Amino acid sequence: MTLLDRHLEFVEELRRAGLPVSLSEDLDAVRAVAALPELDREDLRSALAATLVKRQVHRPNFDVIFDLYFPALIGSGVQPDPDQPTEQAADVQGPAMDGPEALADFRERLEAALTQGNSADGLAREGVGRFGMMRGRGPGMSSWSAYSALHRINAAGLVDRLVAALSQSPDDEPMARREAIKRVSAFTAAVEADARRRIAEEKGAAHMAQHSVRPSIDRLDFTSARKSEVEQMRRAILPLARRLATRISREQHARRRGALDFRRTVRASMQTGGVPVVTHHKPKRPGRTELVVLCDVSGSVANFASFTLMFTFALREQFTRVRAFTFVDDVHEVTDHFTPGADPVETMTTLAASAAKASLWGRTNYGRALTRFAEQYPDAVTARSSLLILGDARSNYSDLALPVLKQLAYDAKHAYWLNPEHPRSWNTGDSAAADYAAIVPMVECRNLRQLAEFIHDLC
Q: Residue 156 has what DSSP assignment?
């Protein structure tokens, strides 16, 4: 495969992974590579990233796919010895290589390198080569496993020993633990990257890219996010909210003018010979609506509820007033938790810990929750309110209280429903999406991108 063929296949994989690469940008990338004085791998990465990546959230997937198509090395990265017999060269795995003594020696060297803060990329490659091989795998199955290597090395168990080595006093322990977790995570990522590289040599880079590249943070489903990805979402959601709030403010400023004041416009046109060069408008009465959020916090939509509440309250300055309520089968107001200056992450952690307050029987019941909301908080929804319901509309085959929802939607200025499930899952099983959508417009909202688009339209 020529470099051009590999580049074209690489660009196709970027597009499949969600990166919007146009034809002109593809041509720019080819010109940038041709302009490189020498074909250094990191220079190639920088040139391709500068021409093909538009948003920072797409950079992690770009790096993963780049490493698959332009690997740093092949195989073990060691030049075979021509004087060594073929049979001996093939026998690279054995007790001397991956036995208990070799494993203990490797752990000691890894702990020393991580304690000193040295790069562990070489040890990561060695660890996969010695402890990540899966012997006796059938046809079509991978011969390498990052999980097996990390499990045998017990990288997670190194954290406590690193904390003890890095901390000089008990007061230093929190900072030392964060640093230890950071270094072990970097080693884990290097092991996973090397395992992907080895598997890509066996099955092809395209096959590995299709099975190893996850959607970018803005396109990743709330309900399927891993723990590390949840943290990335939390870091991304607040800057996204600030940018969106600035954009909304600019658009509202542009729409601040009222209707055309015909009399003043004609009077002013007398100064320009009857030509209305300058138009005058009637002052537009300022006013912002209130926002009432009714959020399902059951286990199936916990991540979705956390992010939507955090994002909504990051935009609370766009509304006159914001009130938030959580429910499973009972309703609990949580507006007081969102005080000015409060840490959003700590706030959502507190809400998650107190989710039991919104549950009596522990089973989602939209009908009971809507009924109790209407009874306990009759003044929450008014003609100035926008009602926002967050949930998957799965009510365990219980009564739906459709008349109650219809009255709430009638009392509100606007009513919206955000559903974190894909539309193809609506109306399956115990989903009452069709019944509720007939009363309140239901919008698919599974990731940060869709959430930002909805909030933009709402404001």
A: G
Q: Is the pLDDT of residue 360 over 80?
A: no
Q: Look at residues 189, 451, 136, 159 and name the one whose alpha carbon lies nearest to residue 314.
A: 451
Token pair in block for residue 149 = 């290597």
With tokens 């979705």, the residue in question is 304
Side-chain half-sphere exposure of 58, counting CA atoms within 13 A: 18
CB 280, CB 268: distance < 8 Å = yes
| Of 91, 23, 21, 115, the residue nearest 62 (C-alpha) | 21
Determine how many CB atoms are found less than 10 A away from the CB of residue 48: 23
- DSSP class of residue 320 equals S
3-class secondary structure, 133: strand
Name residue 58's amino acid.
H
Strand order across the beta sheet in which 414-419 lies: 331-333, 322-327, 290-296, 385-390, 414-419, 442-444
Global pTM value: 0.64
Crossing angle of helices 158-166 and 100-116, rounded to 10°: 40
3-state helix, strand, coil split of the chain in percent (to 5) is: 60, 10, 30
Tokens of 72: 């740093």
> How far is the C-alpha of 243 from the C-alpha of 314, rounded, in Å?
11
3-state secondary structure of 260: strand
For residue 257, what are the β-bridge partners? 283
pLDDT digits (tens, 9 = 90+) for 236-285: 777 766 666 665 555 555 556 677 888 888 888 888 888 888 888 887 66
